[in-house]
Amino acid sequence: MKLETERLILRPVTGDDAGGNYHEWLNDPEVVKYMEDRFYPADQESIKKYIETTANALDKYFFAVCLKASPQLYKIPIGAHIGNVLLGPIPKVHRYAEVSYTFHRSYWGNGYATEAVKAVVNFAFVHLDLERLNAGTSETNIPSQNVLKKAGFTREGAFRKFYWMPTGREDRVIWGQLKSEYHKV
Ligand SMILES: CC(C)(COP(=O)(O)OP(=O)(O)OC[C@H]1O[C@@H](n2cnc3c(N)ncnc32)[C@H](O)[C@@H]1OP(=O)(O)O)[C@@H](O)C(=O)NCCC(=O)NCCS
Fold first, then answer.
1. How far is residue 48's CA from residue 73's CA, in Å, rounded to a whole number?
2. Ligand 1 pocket: which of 98, 117, 146, 172 to mutate (most atoms <8 Å of CB)?
């Protein structure tokens, strides 16, 4: 499955993606700050195993977000793998899905995550005909909350003191979007 936006191509993550950029961002403490321990430190072999398990799961879509060619991006290699978006698991009967994402720090702040998440939301509602999307963020993860807001999600509540963080426990903020609310944001 391949999705295309103005600046990005979203294609399936493969074992070949385990090195390079992906390896770098999974070993960047700023990037993995809100992710589970099992991803850190991540060597290429464990990343490859994770990719294979996730990409082979029938109830998940694991997208590699890659840059298209652009004259403004002359310093950045065309096709660079800059982030991942995961859609799933998707329970067949209930027809909802989790959405999660991670991007290489060098590419933050350019609207790429928002653009990629919007494309995945469209895919989920229009092509997969899902009823609902879920996402969860740590309460201090403002960039991620901004991505969700801009991609049409609504804050629905919070699981209190859900995550352990070095600075103290944090709530998990729950975000959702319904098919009935979706209007190509
Ligand atoms: C969350 C994340 C995916 C956002 O990626 P991104 O490509 O920078 O996102 P966008 O450029 O679309 O920007 C989204 C918002 O992030 C904020 N942001 C981006 N870079 C930032 C930075 N360096 N510092 C503070 N805020 C920043 C901006 O406020 C922006 O919102 P705005 O345009 O309304 O101001 C990225 O920061 C990341 O990979 N973080 C680590 C992994 C993670 O937290 N994943 C989500 C788990 S729930």
1. 28
2. 146
Domains of the chain by residue range: 3-130
* Structural tokens at position 83: 């982030």
Please give the helix or strand (H or E) that residue 150 lies within, else none. helix 142-150
Q: Superfamily for 3-130?
A: Gcn5-related N-acetyltransferase (GNAT) (3.40.630.30)
| pLDDT tens-digit profile, the chain (185 residues) | 999 999 999 999 999 999 888 999 988 889 988 887 555 568 899 999 999 999 999 999 999 999 997 656 556 677 899 999 999 999 999 999 999 999 999 999 999 999 999 999 999 999 999 999 999 999 999 999 999 999 999 999 999 999 998 899 999 999 999 999 997 65
Query: Which of 144, 145, 153, 174 maximizes ligand 1 atoms within 8 Å of its Cβ, making it the mutation to test the pocket?
Result: 144
